[in-house]
């Protein structure tokens, strides 16, 4: 990310990102900030975007963990008493 014009005007696109997309975008931001050659204004903007990406990843990961916890295994390792992932 070399300049502010490469970023969306707002961060509404983050809500539509998959976990993998958001994590990849967050990794690019961390890389840019670690390089240290980013202008101050741009650093602030991408840091703020990074915070939103991290929160989005946390929400998606938590939702995935909740779904996994609904699967119960027998002593033999077979799924039993499985609840629907998205109860209607």
Protein model, in words:
It contains two helices and two strands. With 88 residues, the chain is mainly alpha-helical. The mean pLDDT is 84. Helix content is 53%, strand content 5%.
Topology:
Elements: H1 19-35, H2 40-69, E1 72-73, E2 79-80
Antiparallel strand pairs: 1-2
Helix pairs in contact: 1-2
Task: Write a compact overview of the structure shown.
With 88 residues, this protein is mainly α.
Q: In which range does the helix fraction lie?
A: 40-55%
Number of DSSP helices?
2
- Termini, distance in Å? 42 Å
Low-confidence stretches: none
What is the makeup of the main sheet? 2 strands, antiparallel
Question: How would you describe this structure in keywords?
Answer:
88 residues, mainly alpha, two-stranded antiparallel ribbon, 2 strands, 53% helix
């Amino acid at each position: 990310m070399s300049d502010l014009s490469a970023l969306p005007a707002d961060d509404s696109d983050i809500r539509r990102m998959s976990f993998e997309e958001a994590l990849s975008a967050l990794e690019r931001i961390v890389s840019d900030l670690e390089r240290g050659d980013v202008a101050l204004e741009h650093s602030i903007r991408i840091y703020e975007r990074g915070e939103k990406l991290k929160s989005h990843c946390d929400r998606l990961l938590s939702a995935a963990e909740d779904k996994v916890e609904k699967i119960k295994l027998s002593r033999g390792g077979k799924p039993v008493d499985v609840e629907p992932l998205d109860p209607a």
